[in-house]
Amino acid sequence: MHNIQKFNLIFLNSFLLTIWITFCGFGQTTTNYHDYVTLTGNLKKLTEQNPNLLKMVSLGQSRFKKDIWMVTLSDTKTGKPDKKPALLIVANLEGNQLIGSEIVLGVIESILNQEKINNSVFGLYEHYRENQNLQFILICGQRFYPELKERLNNCFKPSDKLVFSLFPFVKDIEGIYRIADLVISRAGATTVAELATTGIPSILVPYPEAIEDHQFYNASQLVEAKKSIIILDKYLNKDILINNIESLLANKREKYVNMKKAASRGIKMESQALIVEKMFALI
User: Fold this and answer.
1) Which domain holds residue 56?
2) How far apart are CA 108 and CA 114, in angstroms?
3) Both 45 and 13 in a single domain?
4) What is the DSSP code (8-state) at residue 60?
5) Same domain? 42 vs 142
6) Are residues 93 and 220 in the same domain?
7) How far is the CA of 274 from the CAs of 131, 141, 193, in angstroms?
């Protein structure tokens, strides 16, 4: 139930909210696929940046002398990959089945982009623990939930006035949007579309490794409509978040109220891409 005395900040960072975003950004077409060289380069870059989570090996070569790559994404801290349940995505068995590789990139990017926002949000706890006018709801993703739950228990004090709720995943996202005053999130196409539809003000942090920087262009749609603020990933930390939150709430929430009143009707949506996202989210 919405408590009108509290300002509700929702941090969206759940895997299923952003999983099918890579191949369908605003201002792009869904036929803008990646060739073999670009795809291989992107996968190698992600593997080099995340050696504890990604492993990339060649299973052999095609008759055109191109490597057939197998990429395993698993947190080695929680056990061996071959001892866990797995999701297998087989892509491009035929040369013209291009969308499979885009889905693979989307899944990998979506999982990897969660951790930084989670850490930044927890950095806010100490600053706002005495504030009884705020409520934080962090949807952190299944992979991070056990660790963050323990972290929350360790930093909690009985005297804390801040309401901080932690969820691995929320099925009733409409219910979350109904109580949300401000959303802080990555800028996947589905999330941006939902924010445009609901009109909720937001602070968006585009994932910097998203293909063709499509998350930045997604977020820019809302910024142009005066419905959002962009924070570049390289600048994201608790101090930057605090400064932006305080700016929105200063002078009787003047900046926030103006953002809330701004219309989002002019935002262009790519309906075909969003329908594809919704279909895959149901699988």
Assistant:
1) 36-97
2) 11
3) no
4) E
5) no
6) no
7) 38, 21, 8
Q: How far apart are CA 18 and CA 16, in angstroms?
A: 5
Tell me: do 46 and 159 sit in the same domain. no
pLDDT tens, position by position, 227-257? 999 999 989 989 999 999 999 999 999 999 9
**One domain, residues 246 and 163:** yes
Residue 155 amino acid letter? C
Rounded distance between C-alpha atoms, residue 30 and residue 25, angstroms: 8
Q: CA 188 → CA 28, 98, 119, 156, 220, distances in Å? A: 13, 21, 19, 31, 12
pLDDT digits (tens, 9 = 90+) for 182-239: 999 988 888 888 899 999 999 999 988 776 777 898 899 999 999 999 999 989 989 9
CB 150 within 8 A of CB 118: no
Per-residue tokens: 152: 């929350």
- Which residue is listed with tokens 């005066």? 226
In DSSP terms, 163 is beta-bridged to 135
Given 97, 125, 145, the domain boundary residue is 97
Domain count, the chain: 2
Contacts of 173 (CB under 8 A, 6+ apart): 17, 194
